[in-house]
Amino acid sequence: GQQLNQSPQSMFIQEGEDVSMNCTSSSIFNTWLWYKQEPGEGPVLLIALYKAGELTSNGRLTAQFGITRKDSFLNISASIPSDVGIYFCAGSQAVGNYGGSQGNLIFGKGTKLSVKP
Amino acid sequence: DTGVSQDPRHKITKRGQNVTFRCDPISEHNRLYWYRQTLGQGPEFLTYFQNEAQLEKSRLLSDRFSAERPKGSFSTLEIQRTEQGDSAMYLCASSAPGQVYGYTFGSGTRLTVV
After folding, report:
1. B40 - beta bridge partners?
2. B30 burial class (0-12, 13-18, 19+ CB within 10 angstroms)?
3. Residues B95/B49/A109/B20 CA torsion (nearest 10 deg)
4. How many angstroms separate the CA atoms of B103 and B79, rounded?
């Protein structure tokens, strides 16, 4: 099936450092999303991207939808201890709200972020 | 808005037993999704409902799995004759009309088959 390649698998950084992670695919996606998951909880949506080339920020988080529609990246600036968790990219190939796999998101395997105070 | 609620949070069952999980979506959300997440992996899509209609099912949803959403409100996911490979976190999510992808996940049900 479809797969998203997410890298790096894990990161161990110092508080205050910037973080960058990315997600690539061999197929085109029409929607890219970034989620954060903490232990014992479900993923929480951070940023949603709907157009190729789109750059969107949410506080210290910035994500971009690659122009080729086959990749996306997430940056976290000035990391803090509460940024610890697993970050997942997810994509959908559905066009608009109708037809195809409307609700089916394909997730990457995640990037585990550890922040040292 | 109390979020997406899943019950139970944890379930340990013996191989061969049947289990049923419940999901209560956010009240005004008409779409409801089930995902499965194994250790070290991202969530994998199982099925989704729009109101009471089950619109899509993944090939991961074998004959032993069945999901229902009577009356378009809460949903149940039943696994019959559980196998050790069914051990996973089962996540439910819901979304409002017009909000297809930015859906809200519940905290999940952790199933352990022994």
Report:
1. none
2. middle
3. 110
4. 24
Question: First-to-last CA distance in chain B?
Answer: 36
Question: Is the CB of A45 less than 8 angstroms away from the CB of B102?
Answer: yes
Residue-wise pLDDT tens digits, B16-72: 999 999 999 999 899 999 999 999 999 999 999 999 999 888 888 889 999 999 988
The amino acid present at B55, given as its one-letter code, is L
Chain A residues lying within 8 Å of B110, measured CB to CB = 40
CB contact under 8 A, A104 and B56: yes
Strand ranges in A25-66 using DSSP code E only, listed in sequence order: 31-37, 44-49, 55-58, 61-65
Cα A20 from Cα A41, distance rounded (Å):
23
Q: Does B70 touch chain A (CB under 8 A)?
A: no
Between chains, do B43 and A33 touch, taking CB under 8 Å as contact?
A: no
Specify the higher pLDDT residue, A92 or A18: A18
